[in-house]
Q: What sequence folds into this?
């Protein structure tokens, strides 16, 4: 993990974040930080509030309480475009690419959206790193789910965000792609990027994360290094007991 300067604010600071959906308190006073050059895993049962936290950080949803700071600056009132311009990238559970366009065109549109004009060399390098140079002219709809996820990550990294939010990047992917994604995360951490990761593959999260934040019923119940999280009885109960809970009728919040 790259050490952050003691005088620098964390790349991301979530302070007392709260969100209600009608009578449901989806996120309740959640606080944590992500330093530059670190990976933080965000885990918990389905419906625990993880994706809602991502949506609050990126202003897809507006918080009912608390605040989000990026490099020490509150960003709660910014438009989606301005959040992205600050250097915050994000992937989704449902892959968001342009399926009718080919890989190269998808990367070009990602660059255009951030006003980049000199992007081609970096795009070529990313395709090589992600092992899909041979798919340059393949349309998104013809890619496997793993290749689509890699393309979505590449589109975000093309514009070199300081903070990258990954929402279940392993969902539906082949084990080979899993290893590629792990290598990408390690490489981005070495480059000083801050990464916040939602993932249900606990071995993946524990192997890659410097710290793990655990949510249950909208609240943070633990925050610490993987070794502590593995031994935390409250976390074990939350994760193992989740399979016996009734389904959340309002979906994953």
A:
């Amino acid at each position: 993990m790259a050490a952050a300067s003691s005088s620098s604010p964390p790349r991301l600071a979530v302070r007392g974040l709260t969100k209600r959906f009608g009578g449901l308190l989806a996120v309740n006073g959640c606080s944590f930080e992500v330093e530059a050059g670190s990976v933080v895993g965000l885990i918990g049962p389905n419906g625990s509030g993880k994706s809602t936290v991502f949506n609050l950080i990126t202003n897809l949803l507006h918080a009912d309480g608390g605040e989000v700071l990026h490099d020490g600056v509150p960003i709660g009132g910014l438009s989606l475009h301005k959040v992205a311009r600050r250097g915050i990238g994000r992937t989704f559970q449902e892959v968001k690419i342009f399926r009718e366009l080919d890989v190269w065109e998808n990367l070009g549109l990602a660059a255009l959206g951030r006003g980049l004009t000199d992007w081609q060399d970096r795009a070529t390098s990313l395709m090589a790193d992600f092992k899909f140079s041979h798919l340059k002219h393949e349309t998104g709809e013809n890619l496997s789910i793993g290749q689509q996820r890699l393309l979505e990550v590449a589109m975000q990294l093309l514009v070199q965000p300081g903070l990258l939010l990954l929402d279940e990047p392993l969902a539906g992917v082949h084990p080979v792609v899993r290893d590629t994604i792990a290598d990408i995360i390690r490489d981005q951490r070495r480059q000083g990027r801050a990464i916040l990761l939602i993932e249900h593959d606990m071995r993946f999260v524990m192997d890659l994360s410097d710290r793990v934040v655990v949510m249950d019923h909208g609240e943070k119940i633990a925050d610490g290094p993987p070794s502590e999280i593995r031994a935390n009885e409250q976390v074990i109960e939350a994760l193992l007991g989740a399979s016996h809970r009734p389904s959340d009728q309002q979906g994953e919040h």
In short: The mean pLDDT is 92. The longest strand covers residues 24-34. Residues 101-160 form one domain.
